[in-house]
Amino acid sequence: MTGPHLMAETERLVIRPFTRWDYGNWLQSHLDRLPSQHKYDAGYQDMSGCTEQWFAEMIGKQDEMMAKDEVYIFGVFLKATGVMVGTVDVSTLMRYNFNWGRIGYVLHNQHWQKGFGKESVAATLRLAFTKIGYHRIEAHIDLDNIPSISLVESVGMTYECTRKGFIYERGMWQDQLVYYQNAE
Asked: By its UniProt entry, which PANTHER family does this protein fall under (predicted)?
């Protein structure tokens, strides 16, 4: 499932799958990152290995994952300028009688505090419910990731539980908060 039907627009943003023509914009958005602002912000990264060929292969893999209904990865672009401000993804956890997915998001730190995170996550949730057919979307968040907690709460996601030893990160099993939203 790809193409223009997997695009969302808000007043200021366009959320859509990446194409190979996005390479220059994608690379520049990463190069323009500020130094890390906190432990959940990657900040500036070495992008020397991210060639145009590497990017084209990444786009091919993303297209394959979308075609298999595994992961939908969207670039978030400013409508007025086309500048990429971040990414949002939705992963299928289970279909069948569940239609259950997980949302993730990264907003480049040079674009923080402008409401783009809230705007892009809200639009992607609507897209996931109306065009990809999910019934339930979860966000899995580290216990102390206050900006992420604030973001999901601001778009109306509800705290459900804390899953103990849920994800293996930083060399150990970590607890995660689970927030959810169901299709209306």
From this structure: GNAT FAMILY, PUTATIVE (AFU_ORTHOLOGUE AFUA_3G00765)-RELATED-RELATED, N-ACETYLTRANSFERASE DOMAIN-CONTAINING PROTEIN
**pTM reported for the whole predicted model:** 0.92
96-123 core/surface letters (b: 16 or more CB in 10 A; e: else):
eeebbbbbbbebbbebbeeebbbbbbbb
In the CATH scheme, what architecture does the domain 8-136 have? 3-Layer(aba) Sandwich (3.40)
Query: What pLDDT digit, counting tens, does each position of 123-156 carry?
Result: 999 999 999 999 999 999 999 999 999 999 999 9
Chain segment 83-119, per-residue pLDDT in tens = 999 999 999 999 999 999 999 999 999 999 999 999 9
Residues 6+ apart with CB under 8 A from 96: none
CA–CA distance, 124 with 7 (Å, rounded to integer): 9
Residue 34 neighbours by CB distance under 10 Å:
13
- Asked whether the beta carbons of 53 and 158 are under 8 A apart, the reply is no
Task: Give the pLDDT confidence of 14-35 residue by residue, as tens digits.
Answer: 999 999 999 999 999 999 998 8
Domain positions in the chain are: 8-136
H/E stretch holding 153: helix 146-154
